[in-house]
Design a protein that fits this description.
Elements: H1 2-46, H2 50-74, H3 78-100, H4 105-149, H5 153-157, H6 167-176, H7 184-334, H8 340-370, E1 379-382, H9 383-393, H10 395-401, E2 404-410, E3 415-418, H11 420-436, E4 442-453, E5 456-465, H12 472-475, H13 497-507, E6 511-517, E7 521-532, E8 551-558, H14 562-571, E9 576-582, H15 585-594, E10 599-603, H16 611-620, E11 630-634, H17 639-648, E12 652-655, H18 660-671, H19 673-683, H20 698-703, H21 706-733, H22 736-752, H23 756-768, H24 774-798
Parallel strand pairs: 2-4, 8-9, 8-10, 10-11, 11-12
Antiparallel strand pairs: 1-3, 3-7, 4-5, 5-7, 6-7
Helix pairs in contact: 1-7, 2-3, 2-4, 2-7, 3-4, 4-7, 7-8, 7-14, 8-13, 9-11, 11-13, 15-16, 16-17, 21-22, 21-24, 22-23, 23-24
């Protein structure tokens, strides 16, 4: 029930989260839009009302027009009329501009009425100004004409010079001083002027009454028009103020609505936040639970992988131990005289043991590939020779089935730099599969250049058969582990060959392709990148193997499996050697402490003491076999065992079951390096000596890959160079303990390189540090440096 409730809650939260998010997005958008609109409205409201400003300007222009007319009545200047007309034009223009932005017809009509009233008022004001101007101008013009018609002599003959007076002042002064006799014509004109003045006064009085009446009428009309204008302007201003108030009210309503939407938006956002927090807490809780589960699964997987590795190692050891005996004794029996029937039976036993060993190797290789513990080696090898070796392996099987084996090589480089063992393994798997599923026809192994750029070359290596073929739906799975084209094929193999080939191809950073048709055949192509190489001409790879005969050797063999001891005894049966056997680690350790051996061959896993423990004790405790070479035999060679064999003091490690020829070669190398190297040094001390005979990298190669070998060589050169400098300083300062310690430091790296001549020289230097003279010590240091220089120069040219 709790599980159901938790699931319901989870589904509810997961459903509510997107729905709430969508609603919040919609509400947020609406609130934003309204808020944006409200801001625009408030922005417009904050701006001054343009229409009100214009109406105030119209009022101002009307006042200016009225002032201009009033001034013009008393002082009729043309500029005043011009100012009046300009103010009128501005007023009418402003009224028209306001009307353009109005959509309300009633308001438009009000503006039309205002424009009409202003025009009428302006006409009335113009008429008022014109009346006063006309009266004054006509009276003055008549008087001026009369005065100008009076002869000039009047003034000159009868009128005395007086101070300048005004027009009416002159008239009065002349009337008072009229004592001088004037000509008759002048008197007549004067009288006419006086009469005219009297008449003008009378007419003026009459006209004044008429003008006052007319002005009164015009002023009343102007006042009425002005009142109407003021009323309309006030009305329009009230309309504008009302519009402003409506905008403010609308903004308030919008602000209220926006506030409500913001409240809703905030509430939903808070709800979303709560849902998100709940979801995150739930997610973190589940994530923590999943992480714990993943960590637990990882630990279980690692434990399983370690258990698998331990199981494979133990299984390999347990299987290889009896297989070592079976294969070894079979080989020994095949060398003896027997009937053809017995030989055929032994051949069956040998083939069966070889098949089991091959199967075991496949399982171990698959395990290593899955754990990324396989490292490709780099060495110069002959491509064609390697491929021909694969063909030779299957010649008998192909012949027995009546199948032809063919090869097609097209411009393949003779030598390339790569891993020949893995190439041989991949092609062996492909040819082996082809023979399994081909009953008639032929199998073709081909090689050609797919791509080439400088020294980089990609080879196409293909195996084509005329066998059963593979259905298309199964072609993709055929490269998976334990997969086969048909379930019935399990009787012919485990389904690991192609999986291992695919993994090795990927390890080479290559690709694999398949073309197959049921009833026609299959072609599998590998595209592997290599570098074109050049073989050292001083090395003769075609030199035939010489039969090895060991003699005058005392050998300790130690193994807890009796049949392995029997096998080793059988291997050494045809050699002049003395064998001492030990059934466990305790016996082996006691024998090495008490007797001198030329070489000790030890199984790494024995009761009492392991092979690693035995060697470490012998190397560190000053035993008589401290310098004797030691060989380790083991069912599996893991990286751990390689490292352990190096640190404990083994000279070589070999996997069981071993190849007899290789086994004997290693023994010969380990038991006879000193005499060979000494003869080389005594024969010629110049740098033309074959310095590579002063050391042997095979031990390091058997322990690790090429990177490991390079690292060990680099360590050897660095430590030896430093130690030689320290030896010189210690000799100059006559510090014997420093000489002994530095010599001791040089020994392990030299032993790892199997540089036994250098080891002997260093050990002699170490023994001389106690009592010999410093001159003798210096000469011995020179000898050590000479040997080291030969080895270093040769290593620099090759590694």
């Amino acid at each position: 029930m709790n599980i159901i409730n938790r699931r319901t809650l989870a589904w509810t939260i997961n459903l509510a989260l997107p729905i709430t998010t969508i609603i919040i997005m919609i509400m947020g958008y609406k609130a934003y839009s309204k808020l944006d609109q409200m801001v625009d409205e408030l922005g417009e409201s904050a701006q001054p009302n343009y229409n009100l400003i214009v109406l105030n300007e119209v009022s101002f222009y009307i006042d200016e027009m009225e002032k201009d007319i009033d001034t013009y009545r008393t002082d009729p200047k043309p500029g005043l009329l011009k100012s009046f007309n300009n103010a009128l034009d501005e007023s009418l223009f402003l009224i028209d501009s306001l009307k353009q932005n109005i959509e309300d017809e009633r308001v438009k009509n009000l503006y039309d009425s205002l424009s009409s009233l202003v025009n009428q008022w302006a006409k009335v004001q113009t008429q008022i100004g014109a009346i006063n101007s006309d009266i004054l101008e006509s009276t003055l013009d008549d008087l001026a004409e009369k005065i100008e018609s009076i002869p000039q002599t009047i003034e000159e003959d009868t009128i005395e010079e007086e101070p300048k007076k005004g027009f009416f002042g002159k008239l009065l002064s002349r009337k008072k001083k009229d004592t001088t006799q004037v000509p008759k014509e002048s008197s007549r004109i004067r009288q006419e002027i006086l009469d005219e003045l009297v008449q003008a006064r009378t007419a003026s009085e009459k006209q004044d009454k008429e003008i006052k009446r007319k002005l009164s009428s015009l002023n009343e009309e102007a006042a009425e028009l002005q009142d109407e204008i003021v009323y309309l302007i006030n009305e329009l201003q009230l309309i504008e103020l009302d519009n402003d108030n409506q905008k403010v009210a609308k903004a308030e309503v919008m602000a209220k609505d926006t506030n409500q939407e913001i409240v809703v938006f905030s509430t939903l956002t808070s709800l979303l936040l709560v849902i998100t927090i709940i979801t995150q807490v739930n997610y973190l809780a589940r994530n923590k639970k999943y992480q714990n589960a993943l960590r637990s699964a990882k630990r279980n997987a690692e434990d399983l992988a370690h258990a698998k590795e331990r199981f494979l190692a133990n299984m390999s050891h347990e299987i290889r131990t009896p297989m070592n005996a079976i294969a070894g004794f079979t080989n020994q029996l095949l060398k003896s005289d027997m009937s053809p029937e017995q030989k055929d039976q032994l051949e069956v036993v040998k083939n069966s043991s070889d098949h089991l060993i091959h199967l075991l190797n496949d399982i171990l290789d698959l395990s290593k590939l899955q754990a990324n513990k396989v490292t490709l080696e780099k060495e110069i090898f002959d491509v064609k020779s390697t491929l021909f070796e694969v063909i030779r392996i299957f010649e008998d099987k192909a012949s027995a089935k009546g199948i032809k084996l063919k090869t097609e090589f097209e411009s393949v480089p003779k030598y390339v730099n790569g891993d020949p063992h893995r190439l041989r393994q991949m092609m062996t798997n492909l040819v082996s599969n082809a023979i399994k599923y081909t009953d008639e026809g032929s199998i073709t192994l081909s090689a050609s250049i797919h791509e080439k750029s400088g020294k980089d070359v990609t080879l196409r290596l293909a195996v084509k058969d005329t066998g059963l073929g593979i259905a298309k739906e199964k072609q993709k799975k055929i490269f998976e582990e334990f997969e086969q084209a048909n379930s019935s094929d399990q009787r012919q193999g485990t389904g690991l060959g192609l999986a291992i080939t695919n993994m090795l191809t990927n390890l080479h950073k290559g690709t694999i392709e398949m073309e197959s048709e049921e009833g026609v055949g299959t072609e599998i192509s590998l595209y592997i990148p290599y570098q074109i190489g050049k073989l050292d001409k001083t090395v003769d790879n075609n030199k035939p193997e010489e039969e090895i005969k060991l003699s005058d050797l005392k050998i300790l063999i130690a193994d807890d499996e009796p049949f392995n001891l029997k096998l080793l005894e059988a291997v050494f049966k045809h050699h002049e050697v003395e064998l001492i056997s030990a059934n466990d680690g305790t016996q082996a350790l006691e024998a090495l402490k008490n007797e001198k051996f030329d070489i000790a061959i030890l199984d790494v896993k024995m009761p009492g003491y392991s092979g690693f423990e035995i060697v470490e004790k012998i190397r560190n405790n000053g035993s008589v076999n401290k310098k004797s070479p030691m060989m380790a035999l083991t069912a599996t060679i893991s990286n751990y065992e390689r490292e352990l064999s190096k640190t404990s003091g083994f000279n070589h490690i070999m996997r069981k079951p071993f190849d007899e020829q290789e086994f004997l070669e290693v023994i010969e190398t380990l038991t006879n390096p000193e005499g060979r190297d000494k003869s080389i040094l005594n024969g010629n001390k110049s740098k033309k000596v074959n310095a590579e005979n002063l050391y042997d990298l095979n031990t390091l190669k058997s322990i690790g890959d090429q990177d490991f070998v390079n690292e060990m060589v680099s360590t050897f050169k660095t430590s030896a160079t430093k130690s030689l400098k320290n030896l010189r300083k210690a000799t100059d300062l006559e510090i014997r303990t420093g000489i002994r310690e530095e010599a001791h430091k040089m020994l392990p790296p030299a032993r790892h390189l199997s540089a036994y001549v250098l080891v002997e020289a260093i050990e002699k230097l170490q023994s001389m540090a106690e009592k010999s003279s410093f001159e003798d010590i210096d000469r011995q240091i020179n000898k050590v440096e000479e040997i080291y220089s030969l080895i270093k120069d040769d290593l620099d040219s090759k590694v």
